[in-house]
UniProtKB/TrEMBL annotation:
Keywords: NADP, Oxidoreductase. Residues 17-289 form the NADP-dependent oxidoreductase domain. PANTHER family: NADH-SPECIFIC METHYLGLYOXAL REDUCTASE-RELATED, OXIDOREDUCTASE YDHF. GO terms for cellular component: cytosol. It comes from the Bacteria. This is Putative oxidoreductase. Pfam families: Aldo_ket_red. The keyword Membrane does not apply. One of its GO terms (molecular function) is oxidoreductase activity. Belongs to the aldo/keto reductase family. Aldo/keto reductase 2 subfamily. It comes from Paludibacterium purpuratum.
Amino acid sequence: MHCPRITLRQDGPEFSRIVAGMWRLADWNLPLAERIRFIEQCIALGVTTFDHADIYGNYQCQQLFGEALAQAPSLKRQIQLVSKCGIKLVSPHRPEHRIKHYDTSAAHIIASTERTLTELQVDTLDLLLIHRPDPLMDYDEMAGAFERLRADGKVKHFGVSNFTPAQFEALDSRIALATNQLEFSPLHLAPLTDGQFDTLQRHQVAPMIWSALGGGLLFTRTDSANPTHDVLLELAAELGTTPATLVYAWIMQLPCQALPLTGSGRIDVVRDAVAATALQLERQHWYRILSAASGHEVA
């Protein structure tokens, strides 16, 4: 099984349909050789897009990934890199930060991007996202920062993460956004009803999906907080697949053409996600999961 590719928006970036999320890279404790091997294994499966953020791993994940690219520079030509900025954590790695806050000023966007390029040891990002909406964000200033980064050859495309439909459209009216990265899973159904997916489908923009497996809780919690646990196990057995593959397929069946992120350093988890690209669920199967997740049948 080889992962297909998808264009996020007309004239936007072309990514692998499954994106390897690097949020927990520091927690995986992979020696350098194993980090390189993991990237190579992802590429062999067709998973060539890797998702980062400046703050991941308490500001350490991008540097760990960059060390792998520096050791095996041929990988740079085979992958697409996504990163995010806009959150400032209180951290010994950023002693100037006194309180956790957002910063979407042009100065911070540009400085964070330049630091990300240094940490990843590359010249250009394929996609830069604003990590969270900021009550103080000035859409014109943000768009201006994006335009400068593009003109300088440092970022090819831009997008947002966790933005409301109105916030997405406000920035999109100034500069075309390639995606909105959103939380969605059977444990978090809000984008189905809050206008997120409808807005993106209207603009023909494919969302990226974080926490697609609910941070692993879909398969570890069996209480009332996870009503889909038994249904996923039963349906996976019926269809001859794994529960994880089933969930990824359920997400990708959305007509907005969602791109799920994986979050594990285990290549078998990435392989399960890639297998989902070939699994088409019957509507009754799709709604069986939705009904379990929402706790009721459709009206």
